[in-house]
Design brief:
This protein is an alpha/beta fold. The chain has 2 domains: 110 residues, ATPase, nucleotide binding domain (Nucleotidyltransferase, domain 5, 2-Layer Sandwich); 88 residues, Nucleotidyltransferase, domain 5 (2-Layer Sandwich), CATH 3.30.420. 28% of the residues lie in helices and 29% in strands. The protein contains 5 helices and 10 strands; from the N terminus they run E-E-E-H-E-H-E-H-E-E-E-H-E-E-H. The strands form 2 sheets. It has a 5-stranded mixed beta sheet with strand order 3-2-1-4-5, with helices on both faces. Helix 2 links the parallel strand 4 and strand 5. It is elongated and about 55 Å long.
């Protein structure tokens, strides 16, 4: 049986889930900012206890690989790798933007017909992490960091409905005014969906090298020195 633990820490909050044969056994989540460092280990123990499972029964760990919060990703991936090392089980990673798109499709908020999906994660100021996908989750434009202005996506919006979602989409709404642009506000990455995607990769043995795997930060983390008076 495929007992998989899923860890999602890409944004402000974090979530953990346990799946067996793709079926959700239990999940916990919090949207309290910067809660991963204090709550993640407790949440992992809780989903195991509530499901009456032991760590030794795990067959793999699925982690959201990013892009997203530098600190959150670092904590989530480090925890996942630690469990995989200790239990000698595989590590499976999922791009966070692909996770958002998968959740959006499953939310059934998309109109019938051919539409484009544009998941967005906040990268501060007017920049977002984003990608462009078809309604069948085929990748049209790969993951990138993009500065949003009034000219963005004009070429695509002329002939396509484009759905924008994720915590980076809200700040783009005032710039992207085309009638073919649709904004959905309540899609956040969650471990309960991460485990479903991870199961597919687990069955195909699409796993990571635990020693070399790093989160998909996309941009370098910069520590800015305060300006002297």
């Amino acid at each position: 049986m495929s007992l998989l633990l899923s860890i999602e820490t890409s944004t402000l909050g974090c979530s953990v889930a346990l799946h067996e044969q793709r079926k959700l056994l239990h999940s916990v989540e919090t949207q309290v900012p910067q809660s991963a460092s204090a709550q993640l280990a407790v949440m992992i123990q809780k989903v195991l206890n509530e499901s009456r499972k032991k760590p030794a029964e795990l067959k793999g760990v699925v982690v959201a690989a990013g892009p997203g919060s530098y600190t959150g990703l670092r904590i989530g991936v480090a925890t996942a790798k630690g469990l995989c090392y200790a239990l000698e089980i595989p590590l499976i990673s999922i791009n966070t933007l692909e996770l958002l798109a998968y959740q959006f499709i499953n939310s059934k908020k998309i109109e019938p017909g051919s539409s484009l999906l544009c998941p967005m994660l906040d990268a501060r100021r007017m920049e977002v992490y984003t990608m462009l996908m078809g309604s069948e989750l085929t990748i049209i434009r790969p993951t990138e960091a993009k500065v949003i202005d009034g000219t963005c996506y004009i070429d695509l919006l002329e002939n396509n409905s484009v759905y924008f979602f994720g915590d980076g989409a809200a700040k783009c709404q005032e710039f992207i005014k085309h009638p073919n642009a649709h904004f959905v506000s309540d899609i956040i990455p969650l471990a309960r969906y991460l485990g479903e995607m991870g199961f597919v990769k687990w069955t195909k043995n699409l796993v990571e090298d635990i020693a070399s795997f790093e989160p998909f930060y996309l941009k370098d983390f910069l520590i800015r020195k305060p300006i002297s008076a």
